[in-house]
Amino acid sequence: MTDTSAAGMVRVTGQGADRRATRLLHGAREARLTGAPSGVVPRAEIDASWDRVVRSGIDPDQSPESELLEADEIEHRRRSTALGELMPLLRAGLASIADAAQQIMVVTDTEGRVLWRQGNTGVLRRAHDICLEEGAAWAEAATGTNAIGTALAARIPVQVHSAEHFIRALHGWTCAAAPVRDPRDGRLIGIVDISGPASTFHPATLALVDSVARLAEGEIRTLHLAEIERLRAVAAPILCRIGGRALAVDVHGRLAAVTGMPPVDRLPLPKSMRPGPVWLPSLGMCRVEPLPGGWLVQVDEGGAQGAPRRVVLDLSRPRALAVHLTGPLGSVKQRLSPRHAELLYALAVHRQGRTASELAQDIFGDATRTVTVRAEISRLRRHLAEVLAHRPYRFGDGVEVEVIHPEHGADLLPHSLAPVVTEARGAARAT
Fold first, then answer.
1. Cα separation, 258 vs 288, whole angstroms
2. 348 or 271, which is more confident?
């Protein structure tokens, strides 16, 4: 199936098995490999995937084989993901349909490693020939354009048919995959896929897979609410006896019960949470005790001596912007958005403090954008209240601040247009 744009470019959809569409798609792919001009391009998501795969150096004539994970590693990964709890639903929603349609259901982790597969016995045998089996790697970097790897890379549901696959050995297959996210934090937890011989293609397969992925996310939400209710039943009597500010949260920081303070949806927790005194960015010094399925957190109203005294703003890697807070009880790391990195950098440059209008000038080059600045600073203070003061906005008295720059100063926040950053980059280039 094809369509022609107003610019005369033919976009091959790959959604049909007619010979002309397949021939055009092969021609578009060969042109991409050789760099030759072509008036034929594939669908946008396939076009983008081919670009990624070409840049990664994948050989279109290579085998899709990969080194399989050991059985104990596969089992460890199964136990380490929420997908294991969803397998009964996925089997009921997809596996039986895949079997009847001469296809198989495949479930992978966030690295594209196959953890489960089930479906038609004959297709399972054929899948062995292309290494579509448990423990195999199906990320784009390993196997080129395919529904699992491309859904993983693009974070969207995608169907890949016949010659849309980058590796020639996969041209006899069709597949449709959708990402599954944890609704508690939006984090990707895996990919659900249906694959089969190219002759089993059906345009409704993608909608089916995506619908079942959404059902799986709903099941996670239902299971989580049940866990929260159990934690609340345990925590409520304890909180009734506690004076001051306290809350009960699950292991992800989701609120189950609270007393003496406004409720929050989620309390950011350190990766290595432990009982005893703990400094939490949004609350300050706290005393933490374990509960079945979560934590009891009591705010220490007189624990300022444990507050962080050193801030390290790490801007050395554009894709890993972070701030490290260090105090008597150790260090806490917070990832930063580019905007929050710009704001903290401006405050680090101007230790005496900045008004909202001055920060607006620093960040936007427009002193009138104070509403946006105040909103962003408010979000920052949810996690950095112990080190950020206001009136004017500044790092608190006695807080040591260090900025880790990129190896070359001209690479500081390379995509930033904030005047305070562009001026620093210009100065670095001039030296």
1. 14
2. 348
